[in-house]
Design brief:
It contains 18 helices and no strands. With 387 residues, the chain is an all-alpha fold. It has 3 domains: 115 residues; 143 residues, Alpha Horseshoe (Serine Threonine Protein Phosphatase 5, Tetratricopeptide repeat), CATH 1.25.40.10; 88 residues, Serine Threonine Protein Phosphatase 5, Tetratricopeptide repeat (Alpha Horseshoe). The longest helix is centred in the N-terminal third of the chain and has 30 residues. The protein is elongated, with a radius of gyration of 40 Å.
């Protein structure tokens, strides 16, 4: 039920709205008085023109033109006054009353009926302050973003907060805010190829697909830290294409494809871009498998079972050690996860997936490949003996 104070407030608002409609309808007499005043002014102007013409201060031609103009305005005002006077007073009064009844009765009644159909007075109020204080629903992204923004206002040196917020800004269609958040993350946490590349992409989205000079510098900084960062290479090739340097674009994209794995998810996009500038895509390299090379297989043929297991575990340990210092190698992480799966080390495989996801938390393509590797791991990890 609607409380009495709220009902009184609604009634007062309705009265003010009706008054705003009815007030102009009650000003007929004021309008007529204004027209009579205009006619009096025009008569004074005609008398003044006649005096100036008689005294010679106003030439005859100019006096005649001024007299005609004032007479025209006078006739128009007089015609308007006659039209108002010719109106039936009773009929005009009836129209005003009908409009008043409609504004005072039918408009509120229609609003109440519409609220009865669409409204729900049982729903409690939800002020913004209470919604921010409550535990937000996961689907209420705006509240979550506001929470993080308020946290960053209090702790402006929380680089992780900026790094978490930046990709959310980008998905919400706020690329300028995403670029600023990535810049703050770089300032606080230090530069990395992933952060520079992500900031450059946000700048490209903000400029409607144009690789600006600022974005190109971000991509160049990313490649300086990691020459194999594919996103930076792709967008630098796009910058060359937009500048009309098709040969440079073909060279950049060709080099990117030459070092990209055969199953890299970005290969179709780069191949299409390369064809657009008239370049030929190099042959895709063979997909690297998790097992040892040909020389390792030949050496393992003469080993005992324990020796072979020791050799494989040594190779896996070296790969894990390398990934600690080079965590941006997604193919290396995939090989490590598969190797742990073959060895039956489910716990190590899970830990490797967790570490890899942390390293590629802003790369949707890499996360998708890690998810696929985890699905492959489930049946494989249970088939081996751990140890």
């Amino acid at each position: 039920m609607i409380s009495l104070p709220l009902f009184a407030a609604f009634a007062l608002m309705t009265a003010f709205a009706a008054l705003a409609v009815l007030w102009p309808l009650s000003r007929v007499r004021a309008t007529r008085a204004a027209r009579d005043a205009d006619l009096a002014v025009y008569r004074d102007q005609l008398a003044e023109i006649a005096r100036d013409a008689k005294s010679g201060r106003l030439p005859k031609a100019e006096a005649e033109a001024a007299r005609i103009e004032v007479a025209r305005r006078m006739l128009a005002a007089d015609a308007a006054r006659e039209g108002a006077a010719a109106e039936d007073p009773g009929r005009a009064k009836w129209r005003r009353r009908a409009a008043a009844v409609f504004a005072m009765v039918f408009v509120p009644a229609f609003a109440a009926g519409l609220y009865g159909v669409l409204g729900n007075p049982a729903i409690p109020g939800a002020p913004l302050a209470e919604r921010l204080a409550a535990v937000p629903d996961r689907s209420d992204v705006a509240i979550l973003v506001r929470r993080v923004e308020e946290h960053l206002q209090k702790t402006p040196n929380d680089g992780q907060g900026y790094e978490i917020l930046a990709p959310i800004y980008l998905r919400l269609g706020r690329p300028e805010d995403a670029a600023r958040a990535y810049a703050e993350a770089i300032r606080i946490l230090g530069p990395s190829a992933m952060r520079h590349s992500a900031r450059g992409e946000a700048l490209v989205v903000a400029s409607d697909g144009l690789v600006t000079a600022d974005a190109a510098r971000a991509f160049a900084d990313a490649l300086a830290l990691d020459p194999d960062e594919p996103r930076a290479a792709y967008f630098l090739g796009l910058a060359a294409e937009q500048d009309g340097r098709k040969e440079d674009a073909a060279r950049i994209w060709g080099q990117l494809l030459a070092r990209a794995p055969a199953d890299a998810p970005f290969r179709p996009l780069v191949v299409a871009a390369l064809a657009r500038v008239g370049g030929a895509a190099p042959a895709a390299p063979a997909a690297a498998g998790p097992g040892p090379g040909a020389a390792d297989v030949a050496a393992a043929a003469s080993m005992s079972t324990d020796e072979r297991n020791a050799m494989v575990r040594g190779m896996v340990a070296r790969l894990a050690a390398r990934l600690e210092s080079e965590p941006n190698d997604i193919d290396g992480w995939l090989r490590l996860v598969r190797a742990y799966g073959v060895l039956g080390d489910r716990d190590k495989a899970t830990e490797a997936l967790k570490t890899a996801r942390a390293a590629f938390k802003d790369n949707a393509e890499a996360l998708g490949r890690l998810d696929a590797a985890e699905k492959e791991l489930a049946p494989r990890a249970g088939s081996g003996d751990k140890g």
